[in-house]
Amino acid sequence: MRTINVAGPDISTAWLAACRAMCGNPPVAYHTVVRIENPLGEDPAVRSAVERILAAHGLQPVGTVANTIFPAAVARTSSDHLALSRRYGAMLPTLQRLCPAQNDRGTYFGRLVAFPGAKGPVNQLDAIITRLRSEVAKKGSGTGALTAAYEAGFTDPGPESTDGQMESCVTAAVAVRVPGQDSRVPGFPCLSHCSFQLDREGTLHAMAHYRSQLMVARAYGNYTGLGQLLGYIAEQAGLRCGELTVTAGYAQLDCRRDVSALISRASAATGT
C-alpha cells in the first residue's frame, strides 16, 4: 500500500509536497498525512497557478470549494459566530437553489452550524467555541484547561448533544455525515471528522480526516477552508491559530499533467 506523509510551512508548499509525492504510477495514495504549519498562509504564485488549472478543466475555483467549509466573506461582516450561523442558515436555501449539483445535500459549514440532529438542528460551531472559551477561562483562573476535547466529527452528534450543547467532558463531536441518510458512496460528505487541540501555550490546532480526496479539484480548496475555519474558531475563543493536519483514507492526483508542469516550474524556481 502506497502512503505519503508530508509537511509544509503554508498551504501552497504542503499541497505541492503532497502532489509531488503522488506523481508516481499510479497517482494515488492511501492513509495520506499532510501537515500545514501556517494554514492561513499561501504562496500567491502557486495559488494563481492552481486557479488556472482549475479553470482550464472547468472545475470550481479554490474560493468556491473553501466556502463550503467556511464562508470567510460572510464571517468578516458578521458580529460574532452566532450572527454568522443565523445569516448562513438564511442563505443556505438560496445556495442550494443556485448550485443544486454541488449543494443539493447541503454544505459542510451548513452541517457545522445546523446539524440535523434527532432533537432538531444542533449548532456545533457554537458548542465548540463555547467550550473553548470555558476552558480558557479555567486556565486563567488557575485550573488546567482540557487540551483535546474539541472534536467535529461529521456523523450524528448522538447522546452528547442536548439542545445544541455538548455535555461530554471528553469530546465535542461536530457531525457532517448523517447515519441512514448519507448512503451514497461518492460525493458529499467526504470530510468525516475534524478535531481541535488546545496546547498549553494558548494555540489551537486542528486535524481533519477525509475518506477520499482529489488533490486538484478539492484538496487546495479544502486546505484553505479548513485553515480559515481554524483561524476563525481560534479568534472567537481568544486563542492563536496553530497547525492544521489533514489525513485522507484515499487520495488521487487528478489533472496530473498540469500539476507535474507546475511542480517542475516550482522546483526550477527554488532550485530543489
Helical stretch tally? 10
Number of strands: 11
How many domain regions? 1
End-to-end distance, in Å?
Answer: 27 Å
Global morphology: globular
CATH fold call: Thymidylate Synthase, Chain A
Describe the structure.
44% of the residues lie in helices and 23% in strands. With 272 residues, the chain is of the alpha/beta class. The chain has one domain (5-270): Thymidylate Synthase, Chain A (2-Layer Sandwich), CATH 3.30.572. Strands 1, 2, 5, 8, 9, 10 and 11 form a 7-stranded mixed sheet that branches. It has a two-stranded antiparallel ribbon with strand order 3-4. A hairpin with a 2-residue loop joins strand 6 (161-162) and strand 7. The radius of gyration is 18 Å and the shape is globular.
Task: Quickly list its features.
272 residues; alpha/beta; Thymidylate Synthase, Chain A; seven-stranded mixed beta sheet; two-stranded antiparallel sheet; 11 strands; 44% helix; 23% strand
Summarize the structure in short.
This protein is of the alpha/beta class and 272 residues long. The protein has helices at residues 11-21, 44-56, 62-69, 72-76, 81-98, 100-103, 108-113, 124-140, 215-236, 256-270; strands at residues 5-10, 28-38, 115-117, 120-122, 150-153, 161-162, 165-166, 191-198, 203-210, 213-214, 240-252.
